[in-house]
Each structure stands twice: as C-alpha cells, then as structure tokens.
Amino acid sequence: MGFSHLNVSSAFSAHYGVNRPEQLAAAASAMGSSGLAITDRDGLYGAVKHIGACISVGISPIVGVNLKITGEQDLGRVVILAHGHNKGLGWSTLCRIVSLATSRKGRKKETSLSIHELASFFREQANCTILLGLESSLSRLVLKEPGKAKELSEFWKEQFPTPGSLAIEVVNHMTEPGLIGSTKHARAMLDLATATGISAVMTNAVRYIEPDGALTADVLDSARHLEPLGLFEPQPNAQAWLKPVSKIAALALEVTEDTKQSMALIENTERLASNCFLDPEQDCGWNQPKTPEKSALGITGNPFEVLWQKTHSAINWRYPEIKAAELATVQHQLSKELISVNKLGFSTYFLTVADVAQMIRDMRIRISARGSGAGSLINYLLGISGVDPVAEGLLFERFLSTERSTLPDIDIDVESARRHEIYRAIFRRYGGNRVTLLSMQSTYRGRGAVRDGGLALGLEDEQIDEIAKNMWRFSARNFRTELNQKPELAEFSKLTETDRKLNLLVDITQRLDRLPRHISMHPCGVILGDSSLLDLTPTEPSGMGLPMSQFDKDDMDPMGFLKLDVLGVRMQSAMAYTVKEIKRVKQVDLDLDRVDKDDPAVYKMIRTTNTLGLFQIESPGQRELTGKHQPTKFNDLTMQISLFRPGPMKGNMIKPYLDGRHGFIEPDYMHRDLRDILEESYGVVVFHEQLMRIMKVMTGCTLARADEMRRQLGKPAKAQGVATYFKKAAAARGYSQQVIDKVWSVLEGFGSFGFCKAHGAAFAVPTYHSAWLKTHYPTEFISGLLTHDPACIRGDYY
C-alpha cells in the first residue's frame, strides 16, 4: 500500500516549517513513498528545490501552496495542489494564483485571495485541487456548528462545481477529544465529506520530519507571533511529523473504525496524489532554456545567423588595424565559439544580453562586464565586454563549453546611482510578461537565531543583546562547540551550566541555523524569459515596486531562466560624473572606453602607490602590493587584482611570483612544455586558465574537458578520479613520473587557491580607467568620488 503526503510545509514556509526540501524528500524516499508534496505558506519559495530533491531520490514531486482565503466571512487557510502531466496547466495555474494572492503584499496587507478570485481559475476546468483542512473555517465549525459546516461545504461546492476541484482533509493528530486535530474531529470531517459528496483524503499536515522537530516549530511560531512561548496558542502536541504509511494507516483505521473504509481513504489519497504528480520537463520546463522571442529582440531571421552577422561585422570595429595573421587568429577563435553556441542553442541568449547592454549604453549609462564572460570573443564583439580575450590570453571554455548545457552567467557593472532606472527600462523594453526581478532568501545566522530563540524563551532584551553581540565569525550550528573556545563567551558558557533556559537557548540557536527567515529582493538579479515566464514562476512585489520571482538564484539553472546580474557599482557612477565634469569644465568630450591602455603616465602614477580612490587597488593591502609589484602594463593589473584574493593569498602565491618577477629566484616552469603557459606568472600557477592549458598539454584533453576536471578538483569525492586520469594520460604522452608528480602536487591543491583570469581582466578595465582619470583629470575625478563614493577617500578609513 502506497501513501504520499499531500500537505507538507518545508522550511521555506518561513517561521513555520522546520526541514528543507532535500531532507523531506530523502525521508519520504526512505519510507517508501512514491511521491511527496510541498505546500508552503503564501508561496512556492521552495518548490524548485523540492522538485530537484524528488528527482534525485527517485520519487514524484507534488507542489502546492497554503493560502488564506477571504469572503464575506473568514474562510481560513486552504491548500491548493497543482495537477500534473497536463502540459503545465496545473503548474501555471498555481503560479498565477500565488502571484495574484501576493500582489497586495506589503503595507500591512497580508497575502490572501478572495474565494471569488480563486474560483475564477477553476471556471473552465480544474487544473488544481483545493484541500479544506485543519486551518480552514470548515474545520473550526465541523464540531461546534455542524449545520453551518455543511452549509459552508455547499457554498464551496457552488463556487467550485467542476469535478476534482475540492477535497476535504482528514487529519488525526490525536489531540484531546473535541479539539481540532482529534480523532473525533477527523471523523467529523470525514462524515462531512461523505454527506456533501466531496472527496476525502488523509493527510498529516506535516511541519517536521521527526517529533523532535516540534521544539524548533515552537520557536518558529514564537518568531511568527513576535511573542514568547506561553503568550499565544501553541501547537497542541508533536504529531505533525512525516509519518510512515503504517502509522497513517493506523490513524485512518482509528478514524473510520472500519478496515475497508480506512483502506478506501488512503487509496483515494493516493489517487489524488498520482493526479498531482508533476512531470518536471513537460509541466515546469525543467532544464529547458527560455529566452525572449525573436520579435522581442527585433529580429526576424535565424538567431544564429543574426549572431554570426553581428559578430563578424564587429571585427573591424574592435580590430581596426589588425594584420592578416592576427585576423586569422581572431576569426578562428570566433568560429570555434560560434560553433559551441550554435550546438548549445544559446544564440538568443547572447543576442538578448547584447541588446540589454546596448540599451544601457543608449541611456548613456556606463557599463562594464565582469566575470568569466570576459573570456568570450563573442561578448567582446557584441559590446557586452570591454576586454579583448585574444590579447589577454583568456579562454572561452572557462565561460561556456559543450560539456555544460546550463545557460552561462554574464554579470554587468553599471552606475549604482542609475541601477533602478535600468531595471525599469528592461521592463519597458521586454514587457512585464517576460521580465521579473530575482529574489533571495535571508536565512538564520548566529545573531538572528539567538534573538528569536531568546524571544521564544522570554529572555530580557538586554540579556539577548549581550549574548548576540558575541555571536560572530562562527555558524549558529557550532554554538555549543564555540562556547568553550571563544573567550567572549566564557561567562555565558558558565551560566549555561546552571541555567536550564540558557542551555536550551544554545540548542534552539543551533536548530535555527540556515533556516529561511524572510525573502527580499536580490541586489542585482533580473530574470529575462519568453512570454510564458509568468506561467512558470510566481511573483510578488519587491521593495522598489517591481515584481520579483519567488525563486532564488539557485533555481535559475533547473528552471532554464536567463538571469542577468546588473550590479550597481559606485566607481562607475563616480567615473560617469567625472566625464560629465570634464565636459562641463574643460569642454572635452571623453570616451573613456577608447583611451589607450598603455599610457606610461598612468602606470607611473600607480607605481607611486597613491592609489586611493582607484577601483580594486585602493585598500592598504593592495597599496602595499602595488609598491612591491610595480605594474607597467595592463596585464600586470590583471595579475595584481587576481593575486590579492583569498585563494591565491592562502596558497602563498604572491611571494614566489614577486621573487620571480624581480629576479630574486629563477622561475620554475616544471617542464619546457609549460613555459609559455606559466611565463607571465613566473612559474606560479595562478589562473584557472593556466591549469586548463596544463591539463590540455600534458593529457591531450580538450579545454572543455580540462575545465570540468578543474571544477572536480575542489570536490574530494571526484578529485581522485582526476588524479588517476591525469597521471595515466600524462605518462602515455611521454612525461616522466618525476614531472608528473611535481605538476600534480601543484594542481592538486589548486581547486581551493586559483582565480579566474577573466575575472581579473574584467576588473582591471575600470581599475585602469579610474587610474587614467586620476592621472589626467585629478580634480574632476576627486569630485566624482566625493559625490558617489566618499568613504573611499576618508582619511580615518585608512
């Protein structure tokens, strides 16, 4: 006998559910369930993670939402489940329902839907099923006023006459007789379903996996009510857990007092569950890239042909005086990239990002690409990036390859003062049906967990503040371990030995670690899709008034959404202001993107270490490194920015690089075949791109395969496989065991310490631009800094 839980709140029901979707799916699979629902309160925040978790453990996902329904009287909360295997009709209906319910969110208006608004989604056919359960007004009336309960049931039937629209939940939490959740109450709900002809299903209104999770649920209830435990009605017991089918069957038998009826109840539940099993690909567009249609981009032909034409025609723009041999190199690289893009079907993606970048330029807003996208010649020719990947020796495969089918990630830096203006322009250009902002889930960290735990226990605010201020630089889950290691917690640690309430606070704090706390607007993410976007993601109002998806950045790849990061950077605003001041004061029209990157005066100024206010190289540590490094060309800036990162610094890469650069040691290239790869860094493996080239040279693998192995180096479970392949393939190509062992000893720890050169090169562009402005127009540049980034030149900051 199978059983799938149909009413399950995950941790994404903020301040209500206890366990993450991955934990719930694993538990359901372990108990032999064929499927599992997630029915979070007020949104689908954890739905994508739930679907992914169910796929990974081999069970069928069910997705629903728990919403408050209003009418002439309070109708309480109901669960709405999407039907599956109907080409996405159930999923899209659920998304639209949630979006409408949250459209009034904010300004003290809670997430809710009127029964008439909800009924409008069921007029033509039932793509969802509504569960009337413990939190519905029906549940409150069924024992006290059974007549009114029946009238209300008939009212629900009138509003939702389509078969399959309604079901009544039978929940037996074994509370005291006569209370909601008691056996008597469950039997009354079952009788009501029989009397009104509404289908009945068995659920357990799950909030946690094991009974032990009830304590965490109590604390979350306290945080939701903003009151200590004891000042609000608590959950009656610890029965809202993910029970196995054997226990559910026993509860059903207790309710029906008839074996045949109890079996029928569970079979009916499983029948509804199977109707709600989602097909991730067909229903949700799982792993299927979605970009704006050709019409939205203003093109009529084949997108790949348009991309081919745009990139080839831009060669003369980017390389106006290129020689024949160099042109052949550029054309070869471009052809290689275009073949990969065409094979992956990403032409529209690049055209979309290029369209956004051009729109931003047309608004006369400064823009600069960052990240591995700077390694793409296509991005350079389309004007997305300002870094020449051929001249800088960057690799397209670090950014995108046929080994990976997920949409690439391109980040764009813009003027911070005009970021919201860009968001609104994107909405206007592509329409609100194709664009939404990205959201992010804020989770419990140490201090937040202590504060909400202290609130639940009724501790004084002053005492909570005193404990919370010492919660820093460690995770809440490690609170008890850190008690004996942090001197600032010594006094509190001693108190926990005699004060049971404080000792409990430690346990509560650890339980809350990393649980979702609230949703907010992502600081830079914009989602661009086709006209079906709002059928695939629910939205709610963001802080700036524009709609934002309820899905976070980790949900973008599985849903196939194009995420464009538009980051507001104060330095871009400062430089834009500087250019305007130069025009106003000196009547000079300056195109900063066209200034010579080999200006000796600029590097001379940088070598003085007077780099306050310069992008990326203004901190005390960077200024010290600048003095030791003494950069003389653009690639030196890329190198310096890349070395001054946690990974390279932790890997002790700076000293051997500087010693080699200044002739204090002879660079060790490990083998003559690797000299060309490591010459720029004097034998030190600094960049991801260098590792990829080493792998290619010594094993004969493709650069795409080399990048996949690079990624695996940071995963202990897969690193051994990379080691075996590298040593065997290198030996087969004639390298000695001594050389193989020496090179591998360097590569082995690289996964934690290396840095992407494309990132460094992308950062080096605004670094050089800011240095150029400070060298040639210092007064105007300082005025730009004082206007948009005054903190960087405060004397007391340094």
Walk me through the topology.
Layout: H1 21-30, E1 35-41, H2 47-57, E2 60-70, E3 77-82, H3 89-102, E4 112-114, H4 115-119, E5 128-132, H5 137-144, H6 146-159, E6 166-170, H7 183-196, E7 199-202, H8 213-225, H9 245-256, H10 259-276, H11 280-284, H12 294-297, H13 303-313, H14 315-318, H15 324-344, H16 347-362, E8 367-370, H17 377-381, H18 389-392, E9 411-415, H19 419-430, E10 435-443, H20 446-457, H21 461-468, H22 479-483, H23 490-496, H24 500-512, E11 516-528, H25 533-536, E12 539-541, E13 547-549, H26 556-559, E14 562-569, H27 570-586, H28 600-607, H29 620-629, H30 634-643, H31 646-650, H32 654-661, H33 675-678, H34 688-699, H35 703-713, H36 716-732, H37 737-748, H38 750-753, H39 757-776, H40 778-788
Parallel strand pairs: 1-2, 2-4, 5-6, 6-7, 9-14
Antiparallel strand pairs: 2-3, 3-5, 8-9, 10-11, 11-14, 12-13
Helix pairs in contact: 1-2, 5-6, 6-7, 7-9, 8-20, 9-10, 13-15, 13-16, 20-21, 20-24, 27-39, 27-40, 28-39, 30-39, 34-35, 36-37, 39-40
Rounded mean pLDDT is 94
Outline the low-pLDDT stretches.
Answer: none
Radius of gyration: 30 Å
Tell me the total number of β-strands.
Answer: 14
How many distinct helices?
40
- Euclidean distance between termini CA atoms: 69 Å
Which structural class matches the secondary elements? Answer: alpha/beta
Description:
With 798 residues, this protein is an alpha/beta fold. The chain is built from 40 helices and 14 strands. Strands 1, 2, 3, 4, 5, 6 and 7 form a 7-stranded mixed beta sheet that branches. A hairpin with a 6-residue loop joins strand 2 (60-70) and strand 3 (77-82). The longest helix has 21 residues, at 324-344. The protein is globular, with a radius of gyration of 30 Å.
